[in-house]
Design goal:
The complex is a heterodimer of chains A (284) and B (258). With 284 residues, chain A is mostly helical. Chain A is 81% helix and 0% strand. In chain A, helix 2 packs antiparallel against helix 10, helix 3 packs parallel to helix 5 and helix 11 packs parallel to helix 13. The termini of chain A are far apart. In chain B, strands 5-6-7-3-8-9 form a six-stranded mixed β-sheet, with helices on both faces. In chain B, strands 2-1-4 form a three-stranded antiparallel β-sheet, with helices on one face. Helices cover 30% and strands 23% of the residues of chain B. Chain B has a single domain, classed as P-loop containing nucleotide triphosphate hydrolases (Rossmann fold, 3-Layer(aba) Sandwich), CATH 3.40.50.300. Classes of the chains: A mainly alpha (284), B alpha/beta (258). The interface between A and B is medium-sized, with 30 and 32 residues.
Chain lengths: 284, 258
């Protein structure tokens, strides 16, 4: 099929739209996750989302909204228990991580006549996103964008120095919980694209790459969204060309982009340092 | 008599592991420059956090500008220990300074022109206006500390609290910071946790020694009661003890430290 014919296909258009919508959320929330060192916590939230998938099938409700609500609840719970037992954060994340997954698997076992493709939530199925889910993703993007823009100063200050932010009167605890809920919604959006096992890759690699070449949090968010979109589109193309699964292809593409960027940047720095050494210096 | 800035009476505070501060009284007036000294773990940082309203006293009362701590963020500037900060954070020095603005009515991702002007003014006062576009990893320890002081100064606070602003900073950087602090003028009350009394001896108007209990003096010299509080009574000659005793004897003359 030629690229033109391919782009005329509805499922391809849906996939590209899903990639764009996910990248908007991924850029903003991924940047906040990376600068706040919440990667492991985001991983826990992502895996607990599987409980929501199981719940949706068990009670026969639409998957995306049910999972969104369930995961937001899990994120709030995690935020509240880790606030009380901060020194136990990693253990509590582990509990929610595994507990949520086990809950989902058991509910799927109990669902009569369950035979939906389980793998599509574990590894993503960007090529089968229905129009209704695109609208939900658009709504989630609008919510995330509005909250992040409105609270941007507070998020910036508390990401940099939570103690100081608290001394400025910023409601740090409330913002932290809000951020975890937004992470939950972002993760649920990403289930469709890369699947919950690979969510954490797309949530961290583009922001980490963006951090290497940006000077502000806002710039990092924009750049992370851009790199996420590039990874999704290039990954989709690679998946089509080599006939490999789309989720893994997207994450692998993000990894390759990061690696190439890292090597080019290191080489550039090395060359420019060599350049400056040509100036006179004290011989030792 | 100038008006009180900090009034603490009979204050006690402890964590689960045990009491940290017991029956502490502290009175700081407008224009004071107070050094808080004491051993590590003695409760110096906890005392600052109580004054900021980040912690609640378990007994006793604390008042800042006559109100409960934390009620007036714009009047209180805070410079935390700088070692705890994320070095790779994507922000320029100017953006870090702008983070000192109190939580208020203004929202949104961009800062207003008047706010940027306040940031420039704070950076001018700390002598770092030419570093506005630099990221923190590009700065030296002393420059980074002055960025944090500028962040605290952006609201033109009447009370400035600093937690060990001179630790892990080279002597030149220390001198710059001390000059910045002494240049603030008497309208800014300064409370500084410090291990280095020598360099600030000419600026400070009083000392508070903290080691669970607190002993305050209205002169820039350590008293025997403070030394006993901080280091206990030593039978054998402990070098630190002797050094502090010598310090207590030499500082009163004022010009003992070059």
């Amino acid at each position: 099929m030629s690229p033109g014919e391919l782009l005329a296909q509805t499922f391809v258009q849906h996939a590209l739209l899903a990639a764009l919508l996910v990248s908007v959320a991924c850029g903003m929330i991924g940047a906040l996750v990376v600068v706040n060192r919440l990667v492991f916590m985001a991983g826990g939230i992502a895996h607990s989302a599987y409980g929501g998938v199981g719940l949706a099938f068990y009670i026969g409700l639409p998957v995306l909204p049910t999972t969104g609500a369930f995961t937001a609840g899990a994120a709030l719970l995690l935020g509240l228990v880790t606030r009380r037992r901060r020194e136990r954060t990693d253990t509590l994340i582990g509990v929610i991580w595994a507990g949520g997954m086990a809950f989902g698997i058991i509910l799927l076992n109990l669902t009569p006549g369950y035979n939906t493709d389980l793998m599509s939530y574990l590894f993503g199925s960007i090529l089968t996103v229905p129009a209704r889910d695109l609208w939900l993703m658009l709504g989630a993007d609008a919510l995330i964008l509005a909250l992040v823009l409105y609270y941007f100063r507070d998020l910036l200050s508390f990401s940099f120095d939570p103690d100081f932010a608290r001394s400025r009167g910023i409601p740090v605890d409330g913002l932290h919980l809000m951020l975890l809920v937004l992470v939950a919604e972002t993760v649920v959006m990403m289930l469709q694209v890369v699947g919950l096992i690979l969510v954490i890759a797309l949530l961290t690699i583009p922001p980490y790459l963006a951090e290497r070449h940006t000077r502000s949090l806002a710039g990092m968010m924009l750049a992370a969204g851009f790199w996420s979109l590039v990874s999704c589109v290039a990954g989709l193309a690679a998946a089509y060309l080599f006939d490999i699964s789309s989720g893994a292809s997207i994450v692998a593409t993000a990894c390759v982009i990061y690696l190439v960027f890292f090597m080019l940047q290191t080489a550039w720095r090395w060359l420019s340092r060599r350049g400056t050494r040509e100036t006179p210096r004290i011989v030792d | 008599m100038s008006s009180p800035v900090i009034e603490i009476e009979g204050l006690s505070f402890g964590y689960e592991s045990g009491p940290v501060l017991s029956d502490v009284d502290l009175h700081i007036r407008r224009g004071d420059f107070i050094a808080i000294v004491g051993p590590n773990g003695g409760g110096k940082t906890t005392l600052l956090r109580l004054v900021l309203g980040l912690l609640e006293p378990q007994r006793g009362r604390a008042r800042v500008f006559g109100k409960a701590p934390g009620k007036e963020p714009a009047r209180v500037g805070y410079v935390p220990q700088h070692g705890n900060l994320a070095p790779g954070f994507p922000a320029t020095a100017q953006e870090v300074v702008l983070m000192g603005l109190p939580h208020g009515r203004r929202h949104g991702p961009s800062f207003w022109r008047d706010e940027r002007a306040w940031a420039s003014e704070a950076m001018r006062r700390t002598g770092i206006e030419d570093l506005a576009g630099k990221r923190l990893p590009e700065l030296s320890g002393g420059q980074r500390q002055r960025v944090l002081i500028a962040r605290a100064l952006i609201t033109r606070p009447e009370l400035l609290l600093l937690d060990e602003p001179l630790s892990n900073i080279d002597p030149y950087g220390r001198q710059c910071i001390v000059e910045t602090l002494t240049g603030l003028g008497r309208e800014t009350t300064v409370v500084m946790v410090s291990h280095d009394l020598g360099i600030t001896a000419n600026a400070i108007t009083g000392i508070a020694a903290v080691n669970r209990y607190l002993v305050q003096a209205d002169s820039p010299q350590l008293t025997p009661a403070m030394l006993e509080l901080m280091y206990g009574v030593h039978e054998a000659g402990c070098p630190v003890h002797e050094h502090m005793h010598n310090l207590a004897e030499t500082v009163p003359s004022g010009e003992a430290h070059p």
